[in-house]
Structure formats: structure tokens, C-alpha cells
Amino acid sequence: xxxxxxxxxxxxxxxxxxxxxxxxxxxxxxxxxxxxxxxxxxxxxxxxxxxxxxxxxxxxxxxxxxxxxxxxxxxxxxxxxxxxxxxxxxxxxxxxxxxxxxxxxxxxxxxxxxxxxxxxxxxxxxxxxxxxxxxxxxxxxxxxxxxxxxxxxxxxxxxxxxxxxxxxxxxxxxxxxxxxxxxxxxxxxxxxxxxxxxxxxxxxxxxxxxxxxxxxxxxxxxxxxxxxxxxxxxxxxxxxxxxxxxxxxxxxxxxxxxxxxxxxxxxxxxxx
Length: 272
Description:
By secondary structure, the chain is α/β, with parallel strands linked by helices. It contains twelve helices and seven strands.
């Protein structure tokens, strides 16, 4: 066995918070449902700063080989620091696009991606590569947030766009919402690339806020969402739009005591 880790050490403290609040429920859903097997060959696509890649490596154990694929340089650096601190020796990082994976045909037992694959722009190319590297009978396991994510917020977006007569922005909003795809749409898309759906698990979580500015200033929104929302609105109307949006959300908070945003979660398992 490896030595115990000193929770007081600077190195352990640095890597202790290994997952953010957004990724955690989707990672949990993935880890609760993926098939487990000894001496497995596993690929995790889009591991970010190391989750669920590192957790997968520890659950499958030293007899398994875990490959992590990502192109985020700073995220990879953070992941490597965590790997070194935890003395993990069964992970290989492939700093490359999932559209061209440097792994041979029919080599992999399991491919995972939490909040990754179905959000990629070149999904078709990624699916082809996954199908190529998977063994016959291998599994592709995904978690994602489908259409319906933040639906309460986008209802307010749409209401403000209507009030301001912004039909073009309404169309952009609808395109933005539908980009996430539905459960049926994701399954249909993957079936076109030779995959068969074997298991479906649905869950939900939410985010609750005390006022509109708390939503817009939350770190998750600032990192992952707000730039897209701002681009949705023409520049000369942007300030007015967000002022109206803020007021409407605060009116809802005054009425209901909070503003709740739903996040549907989906686990899909496919066989080759």
C-alpha cells in the first residue's frame, strides 16, 4: 500500500478541493453508474482540472490504465500536480483534441466524459474516434445537462426580449437553449455512429439565489456562461436588457423568497 497522506501538508491542501460545485453532481452520477471491471483500459475525455479522471484512476486501481484527453493547458498542469501529490501511476495524459486520439483501434474498454463530449463543436468526429478506439462490447458513458438547464432564467430572458421587441435576440436565445440537445436527440445522434444505448439515468439539481446580482456575479456564471449571454444581446441594448432582467428576477425573489434555477442531469451508457 502507498503511504498515508498528511492532511496538514501544503501539497495536500493545494489539491484537496478537487472538484467544483458545477461538476460534482454530474461526476457523482457518472461514478454511480459506470460499469466496473478489473485491469481496464479507460479513456476520460475533457477532464478539465482532473475530475473525474483522478477519481476514475483510484476507483479502477493500479492494474488499470487510465488515459486523460484534454487541450486545456492550465487545467492539465493542475491535474499533473494532483497526480504527483497523490502518487498516482496509472494515468497517462494525452494533450490533444478528441477528434484525433493517438490510441490504436479496438484498445479501450470504457470511454467516459462528464459534461464534455456532447458539448464539443465537432461532435461527429469525436464520436467516430471513440467508436474506433473502443473494443467490441466496450462502453461509452456520458453525463450531461440537456435542454432545460436554467429554464427559469431563460424564461425571464425571453420575457425581457419580448418587452423590448428584440426578435433577433429571441431567436439567438432559442438556438442557445437547443444547442444542449435533448435526451432523445443525443441518443439518436450517437446511434448514427454505431452506438447502442444500454442504460439511462435521470436526475436533477438546482441553484438557488437571493437576488439577481448574485446570479450574474457568481463565479460559475462569470467563467462559463455570462460571455455567451452578453453576446446574445446587441451592444447598444445590452445595459438596458440586463437592468430589466435584474429587476424582473428581483421581483420574483420578492414574491417567492428566492430564484431557483433547475439543472437536469442525464447519464447515458452506450455499447459498441
